[in-house]
Amino acid sequence: MRKNKVIIFVLIAVSMTFAVTFSVSDGVALAEGVCVYLGGYPIGISTNAEGLIVVEITDVQTDLGAVRPLENKGICKGDIIKKINGNGLTGIFQLKKLLESADGDVELTVKHSNGVVSNIIVTPAVCRSGERKLGLILKEDVSGIGTMTFVTLDNRFGALGHHIMDVESGLSNQLQSGKIYNTAINDVVKGQHGKAGGLVASLNKLSMPIGEVQENSNIGIYGQFYGKPQGKLMEIAGAGEATMGKAQIYTTISGEKPEYYDVEITKPPHFFGSAAMFV
Asked: What is the widest separation between alpha-carbon atoms in the chain?
């Protein structure tokens, strides 16, 4: 007698996470009998660095010409502005309000990309419209679309299958918290040789989140899932159980509902946790 089991892996070529189901005999050792609810459905992902992410240092256009308040101040792309005058920062609008209400110089608490935290005194420049500015291009979070991989019996989730990295700032390890949201796939961009494809969907961060990101690792994002899992309960395959042959992937390429797609495994992973599977 044979039963279906599931193994989770990442198909790097198209930047999507799949659950792969295949048949194994009853005599094969199990992965401690662990069961999870299958994902396969799309999610919106928003992660943050617990501060404002520096994307670029720029000039401020004033009545006297272009000035750069943060030149030679030690702030670089990928740094995180944590505080201004002792006030913790969560949004760009908040920073603008605190700049306007401050007199004279301001103190920025900055976490640099090497982990060092420093306090920097800077004189904001007054631009032509009369606003006080620092000459920074900032972002509040790093957002995108991915696929829910699984939800455990105690409502912990795993998703995406690889780490999140911000291409503008270069941040990755600093993005360890955030939220996930419901979404729907509008289109799929097919991967090409040397160029990853991806999912096309919208992300509404004003909607109710369905989970909290608590870890951004090399093999995916993990955290607490809110509510009731949607997928079928299946047993996880153990190391070495995936073999060459027919299988199915479970994912969403349109709308919100995942479907099974027939594939064939031509090269199984060499070790548990490896993404080196060819289908």
From this structure: 82
d(CA 118, CA 107): 10
pLDDT bucket at 11, cuts 50 / 70 / 90: very low
Confidence (pTM): 0.81
Cβ neighbors of 240 (< 8 A, separation 6 or more) are 272
Q: How many CB atoms lie within 10 A of CB 262?
A: 9
Signed CA dihedral, 198, 199, 202, 205: sign only: negative
Q: How far is CA 6 from the centre of its chain?
A: 24
Per-residue pLDDT tens for 24-70?
Answer: 433 333 345 688 999 999 999 999 999 999 999 999 999 999 999 99
* 119-178 pLDDT, tens digit each: 999 999 999 999 999 999 999 999 999 999 999 999 999 998 889 999 899 888 899 999
> Of 38, 45, 51, which is closest to residue 209 (Cα–Cα)?
45
38, with CB counted inside 10 A (0-12, 13-18, 19+), is buried
